Amino acid sequence: MHKNKRAQVAETMTWVVATVIIIIILLISVFVASLIPKTAYTFTGNADLFAEQSLVSYLITPDSSGGSVYSEIKNSGSLNDYNGNLAAEIFKTLYSGYYSRGVYLGIYDSSGFVNVETNKYFGAPPSDVARSDLTGSVAMRQGVNDFIYLDGTKYIHMVLSGGYS
User: Fold this and answer.
1) How many CA atoms lie within 13 A of 125 on its CB side?
2) pTM of the model
3) How confident is the model over 48-81, as pLDDT tens digits?
C-alpha cells in the first residue's frame, strides 16, 4: 500500500505542475493579446450583423487585378468605377429598403475640415451623421455607422441611416 501512495503523490504532483504551466501560458497569451493595438477596425454605432458581413465580404472581393477591393481602395484612396459600382449594387440593393434615410459608402478623412467624400456612387452621407471630433468619431441618431481603417487618417465609411423603415 505504501508504494501506491507514492505513485499517487507523484502523479498528483505531475498534474499540479502541468496545471500551473498551463495557467502561466494562458496568462502570458492574454497579456500579449492585450498589447496588440486594435486600430484595424473601429465599430461605432448600432449592430447589424448582416451589414457587417456584407461590408467585410465586399472588401475581400477580388478586384480586376487580382487583389482585394480593400487593397485597391487603400492604394488609390478613393472609390473607382469597379469598386464604387460594386458597392452601390450590393449596399443599395440590400439595404435601401430597410434604412429609410439613406445608404452611404465612401472615404472618411479625419485630418481635414471636409471629412467625408461625396462620391458619384452614393452621393453624400445621410444628414443625421454629424462630425463630433477630430478623431473620426461621428454621432448618429439611428442606424449603422462603421469605419474600416485604411491608413493614417483615412477610413472606409459605411452609413446605413434611419433604422428599419
Assistant:
1) 25
2) 0.61
3) 778 888 888 999 999 878 889 999 888 888 888 9
Amino acid type, 140: M
Report the alpha-carbon distance of residue 55 to residue 49 in Å, rounded.
10
Which cell numbers hold the place of 91?
Answer: 449596399
- Backbone angles phi and psi of 62, in degrees to 5: -65, 140
Phi/psi at 143 (nearest 5 deg)? 135, -165
140: which 3 cell numbers?
Answer: 448618429
Strand partners, 69: none
Query: Domain ranges in the chain?
Result: 1-36, 41-161
Q: In angstroms, how far apart are the furthest CA atoms of the chain? A: 85
The 3-state secondary structure of the chain reads CHHHHHHHHHHHHHHHHHHHHHHHHHHHHHHHHHHCCCCCEEEEECCCHHHHHHHHHHHHCECCCCCEHHHHHHHHCCCCHHHHHHHHHHHHHHHCCCECCEEEEEEEECCCCCCECCECCCECCCCCEEECCCCCCEEECCEEEEEEECCCCEEEEEEEECCEC
